[in-house]
Amino acid sequence: MTSRSERDRKRWQMLAEFRCSLRSFLQFSERRAEQAGLHPQQHQLLLQIAGVPDGTDTTVSYAADRMGLRHNSVVELSIRCEEAGLLMRMHDPADRRRVKLKVTPEGERVLRVLSADHERELKELLPRLVESLSLIEQARKNAAEDATAKIGEHNGIQSRPVCGILRWMEGYGCSPVLRSESG
Length: 183
Known about the structure:
Number of strands: 2
CATH architecture: Orthogonal Bundle
């Protein structure tokens, strides 16, 4: 059994690697948006509006929530996008206080190009992300097993793997290696 400080050090190394991979993708995304003539937040707004789940209103409030921004920030951002011809702002006929957003054909054209670039970059980063997630999940399971063993209860811990993310990554051709609950 390894010492707590050694486990902590390994855990921090895994989290640092995962964070580095994520940051690398975000930096790529920001550079690519700027090369396309957009502010990175304009790209994110277009993506959130174009990628809205069926049946969800594409309101300023929705976009603010998805982007983690204040309502007034998204109002200004949406105005700049509208002025650039990337989206349309329309008052909701049922409630004039609500503004709905819709990506224009020009916005869709820009998104197609950026999305293709982002998918290629994700495919390159995917092995690093999957490996990091797999190691983090295994370390979490090991820590849970260690904690359980210390108190003598071997049947109370349920795993909550990051399977949603890993299943999404498998769609890009990567097969994460996670040990089963029994293994």
